[in-house]
Amino acid sequence: MITVPAANGPGAFVHPALFYQGLDEYLAGVGGFVRTALGSDEPVLVAVPGPRLDALRDSLAGTGSDIEYVDMTRLGRNPGRILAALQDFAERHEGRSARIVGEPIWPGRTAAEVLEATRHEALINTAFAGRDATILCPYDVTGLSEDVVADARRTHPTVIEKGRELPSPAYTDAAAVCGGCDLPLPEPAPGAGSLDYVSGDLALVRDFAESWARGTSLSPGRRGDLILAVSEAAANSLAHGGGRGTLRLWTAGGQGVVAEVQDGGRLADPLAGRRRPALASTNGGRGLWMIHQLCDLVEIRATHTGLTLRLHVADA
User: Fold this and answer.
1) What are the phi and psi torsion angles at 167 (to 5°)?
2) Is 6 domain-assigned?
3) Last residue of one domain, picked from the residues 153, 181, 209
């Protein structure tokens, strides 16, 4: 059994990557982590992809009831949603050391999803700094590329490999990792719809997006999600992006639709939109948080010329 040490006292955060090969190693590593937590009367959140979730639930049957299971393919379809869920779990158990298993990257993820999930892994270290919690992140080293495994070494202070936990010499500051995730976005599909807008045009933006979306395969519910997300993004442009912006819309080859909003704004807080805003908050971030909840993938690029939000909404 692999035992991962819990956070050692208030303010200590532990974030190891577990490199596993095959189901037996997975169940031994993750199962040992969960059993140790239950033995210490600590609440556990297990957020892993569905097939792994079922295997863990079966192997841990009868060990205790203080385990919350979540299918990461649903929660983490948009990696920008994961961090808020992990923080919500820790806050629901305030005063206790929270144990979390989070597997945000699995074989089959698209390159764009992997980039945003890697960004998430780096930002965990910023978001949970000073919090009494342990987050174990499994990585399937036989099914993932060498680049993904190398990035895991950069986003985790320690790694567990072949039963041993060791410091990761490649561990890197979150800002540097996130900078490496800011690769240029591919050009939109030919024939993308486009609209330039300025202050006072928010209704025009909504009407344009709604009219365009009617010609796609999106269901009425998903069209509503797209229009609301676009409206929030455009509202941010008008409030924080220089009072103007450009909206582009295109279909994604049977994979739903993509909306892109460009403006002259800046993103001062890399955690903006990834943390649930307080009800009484006046610091902003509420619109971007809502966008993350509505979309299946959110790609953000901040450059010297401004801010680009690329929003992906799938058919189902």
Assistant:
1) -60, 145
2) no
3) 181
